[in-house]
Amino acid sequence: MRSREEWSALGFATPSVLGLGLFTLFPVGMAVVMSFFDWPMLGESEFIGLENFRYLFGEDPDFLSSLRNTFVFTGLYVPLNILVALGLAFWISRSRWQNLWRVLFFIPAITPMVANAVIWKLLFQLVGTEPNLLAGGSTALLSVVAMSVWQGFGYNMIVFSAAINEMSPSVLEAASLDGATGLRRLISVQLPLISPALFFATTMTVISSMQVFTQPYILTAGGPGNATETLVMTVYQAGFQSRELGLAAAGAWVLFAIILGVTAVQFLGQKRWVHYES
User: Fewer CB within a 10 Å sphere, N or C end of the chain?
Assistant: First the structure.
């Protein structure tokens, strides 16, 4: 009987394990190998060691600017997304129509991003400014951030709204009896109570913002110049336009290392401000 159960479990797990190996582990392993090669899409590959990484950080004129743009986008997008989502979550928690507001605010997060970006591009082009908001070097990235916040805050708002509704009424009542009201109550009581949700939302938002591609690609195609070109766009251009797969793999691994490092810092720092109920 035990042997049959083990074989049955193996049978159920095999499709998932094969899918993981074929579509995740194998491509990841190949990307590691390709990053050390001059690997054109057509033709013979040649081992070049760390030359792809040296080129990215030393000779590629677009890589460092795209890296800077990615960090600037993340630095603007993440706090704006969290603040908008958190503010609306607290606001709808006092409303009689909580479910309705949740649905309305969540709609942009589940609609196709390409369609949203095309509509926002038309809106930006209709705005009567000269030059156009997407054509100005100082406003293009801000416009991409604004569209991205509108697109993405709904998911975090749902997470925060659920966490707010789960706050212990007895703790909130005790805080009120102790005189904690308004801003003091928010900072000292409510935010610590929902800190696990804040940590989760912040971590996931940072990861997604470091991988931003669709919004700048549709809105500005990386322009004007390379003012809105992000790291994923640089990887895409290296792999599918220049057809330098080794260079694209190296850029992808640089992005992976950055995301891994940032995420590790977040997890190491969570003990200082995230409070889990025992």
Answer: C
